[in-house]
Protein: Magnesium transport protein CorA
Organism: Salinisphaera aquimarina
Amino acid sequence: MLHYLLGRPPRVGVRPGALIDPEPDARVGALTIYRMDFGGDADTRERTETDLDAALTVPSQEDHRLTWLHFEGDVPAADLARLGEAYHLHPLALEDVLNHGQRPKLDAYRYSVFASMALPFTREHECLFQQVSLFVGEDFVLSFHAGTHDVFAPVRNRIHEAQGRIAHAESDYLAYCLADVVVDTSFEVLAGYNDRLEELEDEIFDNTNRDMIEVIHAMRRRLIGMKKVLRSQSEMLLHWIGLDHDLIHADNRPYFRDAEDHARRVLDLAEGYYETAGSLLDTYLSLASTRLNEIMRMLTLIATVFMPLSFIAGVYGMNFDTRSPWNMPELGWRFGYPAVIGVMAVLVLGMFLYFRRRRWL
Amino acid sequence: MLHYLLGRPPRVGVRPGALIDPEPDARVGALTIYRMDFGGDADTRERTETDLDAALTVPSQEDHRLTWLHFEGDVPAADLARLGEAYHLHPLALEDVLNHGQRPKLDAYRYSVFASMALPFTREHECLFQQVSLFVGEDFVLSFHAGTHDVFAPVRNRIHEAQGRIAHAESDYLAYCLADVVVDTSFEVLAGYNDRLEELEDEIFDNTNRDMIEVIHAMRRRLIGMKKVLRSQSEMLLHWIGLDHDLIHADNRPYFRDAEDHARRVLDLAEGYYETAGSLLDTYLSLASTRLNEIMRMLTLIATVFMPLSFIAGVYGMNFDTRSPWNMPELGWRFGYPAVIGVMAVLVLGMFLYFRRRRWL
Amino acid sequence: MLHYLLGRPPRVGVRPGALIDPEPDARVGALTIYRMDFGGDADTRERTETDLDAALTVPSQEDHRLTWLHFEGDVPAADLARLGEAYHLHPLALEDVLNHGQRPKLDAYRYSVFASMALPFTREHECLFQQVSLFVGEDFVLSFHAGTHDVFAPVRNRIHEAQGRIAHAESDYLAYCLADVVVDTSFEVLAGYNDRLEELEDEIFDNTNRDMIEVIHAMRRRLIGMKKVLRSQSEMLLHWIGLDHDLIHADNRPYFRDAEDHARRVLDLAEGYYETAGSLLDTYLSLASTRLNEIMRMLTLIATVFMPLSFIAGVYGMNFDTRSPWNMPELGWRFGYPAVIGVMAVLVLGMFLYFRRRRWL
Amino acid sequence: MLHYLLGRPPRVGVRPGALIDPEPDARVGALTIYRMDFGGDADTRERTETDLDAALTVPSQEDHRLTWLHFEGDVPAADLARLGEAYHLHPLALEDVLNHGQRPKLDAYRYSVFASMALPFTREHECLFQQVSLFVGEDFVLSFHAGTHDVFAPVRNRIHEAQGRIAHAESDYLAYCLADVVVDTSFEVLAGYNDRLEELEDEIFDNTNRDMIEVIHAMRRRLIGMKKVLRSQSEMLLHWIGLDHDLIHADNRPYFRDAEDHARRVLDLAEGYYETAGSLLDTYLSLASTRLNEIMRMLTLIATVFMPLSFIAGVYGMNFDTRSPWNMPELGWRFGYPAVIGVMAVLVLGMFLYFRRRRWL
Amino acid sequence: MLHYLLGRPPRVGVRPGALIDPEPDARVGALTIYRMDFGGDADTRERTETDLDAALTVPSQEDHRLTWLHFEGDVPAADLARLGEAYHLHPLALEDVLNHGQRPKLDAYRYSVFASMALPFTREHECLFQQVSLFVGEDFVLSFHAGTHDVFAPVRNRIHEAQGRIAHAESDYLAYCLADVVVDTSFEVLAGYNDRLEELEDEIFDNTNRDMIEVIHAMRRRLIGMKKVLRSQSEMLLHWIGLDHDLIHADNRPYFRDAEDHARRVLDLAEGYYETAGSLLDTYLSLASTRLNEIMRMLTLIATVFMPLSFIAGVYGMNFDTRSPWNMPELGWRFGYPAVIGVMAVLVLGMFLYFRRRRWL
């Protein structure tokens, strides 16, 4: 149901900050480490490793230089612990990197800021979320993606091209660029719901079948979870805008404001879709009710016309002994049959007029 | 569905502030530039151009003079970039001018204030929004309308007539005048919903058909999106009232308060219509249910009366050999037929009384 | 629908503060001006005029004296402009006096406070609102009522009797007295809904007809609009309590707090009625559904009993040639007829027991 | 409907603070006055009077002594006016004592604090509220109960026993004790709803009848009003906790916090019951719908089986002249009857299999 | 219904802070006392007692040493009073320990902080809450669990292992560890709802029966109560984060922030489940409505086909005297029977085409 919100439930009573590798079925894939060193006067250097030691050995002592380590896939708990020591990261934040399924949130510590985000992606028509975690320090940014596709490739390209503000090598601006990728991806995924809701609307007015209810319910259920995650994401960015921390440059505030604005648009969309899906279910119910009315009107018309007629025919099918003049003398009349048919015709006509007046026909 | 909220989705990973021309299908029309220079001691000058160079060349160095450049239609990304340099505009704000479908918002930068608004218009009974963007600086106002009809003509007329406060040539008052046009247009568009809801109400109590459900659903769906956009618009103006910025004169606050008040009324209307449409759907369902009850009561009356009668007629239509005195001796009775008819009449009368007591008749 | 909220829509592009007479169909009636001068050591003077000049000529130069001008009916735009000059009123506030249908609001200017309120009244079972506008200055109060009945007569009487605090001739206390009349009138009007809802409840449990749905829907629709107006009214008074302005005496705060408390009670009532009307519609739907169940159970009982019986009778009404010993030998049996009747009786009894067990009887 | 919220509507235009006796039908009962003087070094003294003069004559000039006057029943307006003078009470607060049905609220004046609360009680299965008003001064507490049962007897007992903090004779602590009685009584009354909702649930799954809908609707309607009153009560206590007034001792804050906590629990209960009653109505509707489905399935089974059979029997009941070899030769067949019965049996079997496959049986 | 919220209702008029043993049916089990002394330079000591005297006698005078007393089961009122004296606890807080069913809350007193939490557990598929109360002082933590299973065993183990921050022996960190256990247990319990909702969804699309409605209603009802309790729990932790008290170390704030974050996730889950269960009921109603439509269509088809046919057969079963040439001459025709059968076949075909066109087949 609410898969992302559930995530990996915390283990009761375990020491806070304890780093424990996830169970095999909660793993996401092999680790790839992307390291970039850029800014200052030296050249931009990029390396791709699968081993933490190799990634950490790159010297980065130059002045005004920013190191960005991006971890794609499962980071072993032991490596994470070493990272924590190397960069003075808070154990609770490290624990949150391992325990996927955190609510998007921002925790400011003395020497670094930790942010956890939810990156939506679509698998088999299901919208799921993968956790993206960020540590922003004075001269480093660490990012973790609990997935296996290289989401931040466009940002690496922009660093190589050294276009725009990213060339200043400010850690919070780089963090904004990563957050921006996450938010804009949400936008893309949400936009997909638009088309499916429009299709559903067209189908619903054409015919009603149960599968449609199942689809609408599944969509609402998913949007319930998404709304909560996306609201947290938007609040997290709002928190970031207001953050009073040495690591955050006033000049970069407009960028976070922009990201927050996009996150709010995404949230508005998710809420709008949820309300629309609800309205669709109401509409479905009204349509089904209208159709039932039509069907029952048909049935009632048929029954109202033919029951009296059949009854009359039944009466004259009785076998009373017509030798008694009191027993069904109509049977012996010369024009008995035409008379009965006439009576029936008059009945049908009368009903027809009655139904007309009640607007049933 | 939520067209305006969707707008032009941001491209994932693109450099923030990158100015990219929209795809051909997202273009709105050819560009017209209206330039006005007014205030100070000199005369008011107005020029209409289709080319940025021509619009920028007008000398405007006089003291206390305000330049207003209004861009109607698509502004090429290259021109926008030049404008940004000329007026020291923030790249993120410029990007928002190009990417239509922003949430109404206000961003205050050091030398200018950027506002994005949503101007509603009606096309084929659909309420859509077009983006209006404003830059307010010390001695300039830039406005952009992602549409092709000249919405701000009345404001230009007022400048020519130099009536009222607009003659003071304050940039924030001019911005207010433009915001006022956008809000009052929203009011006009919303007022149209009133008549359509009243028509729907009248129809719904007269007859029920499926088209009406479709119309109500479409209206609710649209109002879901409008509520969100109009709420952002109202919040944006509230933000403006509270803005502490050199460009905002305290004397002009009451005007923004007035615009915000109108925006709230528009939002109240949209919310009221949404609730009314919801109530209408509930009402429709109740009406359909009442009608079904009436139809089924009719059917049940008919069946309850005629089924027993037909059964009796059926019994006396059986062909048992009446030579046995045990087999349907009634058939041989002298008054068998009148007796049966009498029994039937008594039955009908009894049922009639029963239905009366249950208030079914 | 939401008549009051709609009010007189602003004209797009018109100069803010422009005073334009309403169209003939938006007029409310001829103007009567009530002028009172009281407080200080001199006597209380009251005059009733239909002409602004006459009303303005009364000398009021005495010390510590309060002038109250009440305008009942349509004030010509030209007169309003003169008033504005005489009392230094803000043009936007004057415009709001003319454009009926403002949201209740409070605008504090340097030399006066402007308040707009909504006075409910009932016409043909419809609850409508009339605008009451107030200007509160150092030594004057101007009030405007867009209607024709003299709502503030009791306040004038109290001034004549010089009872209580009103004799102090403080302009803000007089304003409170007027606001109090508006709020208490709302209370009276809302109380009328109580009786109608109770009647509706009684009716709904007695019988179901479509008119009732129409009445409930109309009531909800009206309450949607009233809730919004009354919430604004309550917020306006809250705003007044918190107002930090030279014209507001701290000693009079408790009075405004009292008015606000009453306005909140009125709002609570309107919200309560709206929820109750919603619950009533749910109840109606459940009742209709229960009745349908009863009707259908009846129909099913009848059909279930008589269809098999009629079938049996039909079988023995077939005309197979009984000369063949295989063709319906029952017809020739001595006790064929009683046997068939017996079988039918057993069938009915069985069904009766079956229905009993399923609690259908 | 919302009896308590309605209360005694304010009279339009009457002077604020005017003390007017309620109409005879709004009276609650004869007045009893309980006076206690306690604290300081002297003994606790208690007197019960029916006359204000007698109650006021008790000397209470000792130092550090607290006087508590409790008025049970209708207080004549004249007596209230005299009390107001004696204790310097604000006229608006006195008016609120007389006008029962105030929203729970707290008004802090210079020399006293006025609180109005709603005491729930049950009469004929209806939950109603009676107003309890409190004035808290330096050395006095005045309490008014618009009812006739002696609700504060336990508090008087505690004063006599001089147990705990009440012996300190602080006026605000005594006020807390009275508020505590009101809140805890609310709790008891609300707890009664629990049992009734559980009974309703059991009944609803056993059988459906209209009375139950009436009961649920009545409960929801009442809870709508209670929620509003209890929310005000909780807000009033929150207001009290935050009150910065000489009369409020910091040491007693935890007690008000405790009372507020209980008031919130009571409010949570009321809201929970309201939601549960709503869920119950939804459930009722679903159950009714399920039952209708079952009934109609039954009807359809019967009709589907017997209509074709009856038709076949009807065909062979036709009286075509069998002398023509083309007219119903089956009638003359030797095994005509068994053949027809066989065909019928095959039909029934086929339908049975069909219904099985559609899971209707 | 809302068992936890109801809890043990306060007794009206009883002295606040009075410690009264609960009635026998509200007792939870025999008392076990776990005492741990740890921190400083001395060894960690643990003792398990069933008697308060034994638990209190352990000397704990060493410097920088923390005493943790955990009470599992019913604490006699007399023992609680002695504890209160020994540790200077506020009587209101002690009363809340005895009166189970408090809303989760935090009360800060001068020398200690009192927190009350709700620990969920599952009994017979019902989610219930047990109260956990905490007193946090300078050098002691007292915890009370109104249940009988030893929930805090993992924390005791961690103290023995002296792993991580818990070895610092700070009272607020220990309190956090206990709060963490409560919150994480909530998470586990809530996760169980996920599976049950998924099962319900599968069942609902397979078949509809009333038991399912009962299950959904019961789930919603329970979640109504849980939402309220969990929201209070989350607010309580938020309150703790913001608490400015000597006993709270700034270094431990991130831990409470983490606990609050988990509590919010739990609350999000409960709200999500509640909305999902609501959507499920809507879906159920829509499905039932669709099924009814299908059934009625079937019935109408059958009736529409066979009623006219049976009527025709009935007509030719009438016994008119065919000696008159006007009476049913068709009976004597040579091809009368085939003609009638043909007419019937044409009728059936026509209806079939009609139903096809209306998409009923």
About this structure: Strands of chain D lie at 32-38, 45-49, 66-72, 105-108, 113-123, 126-136, 140-145. Chain D touches chain B through one residue (CB under 8 Å). The first strand of chain D starts at residue 32 and ends at 38. Chain D has a mean pLDDT of 87.
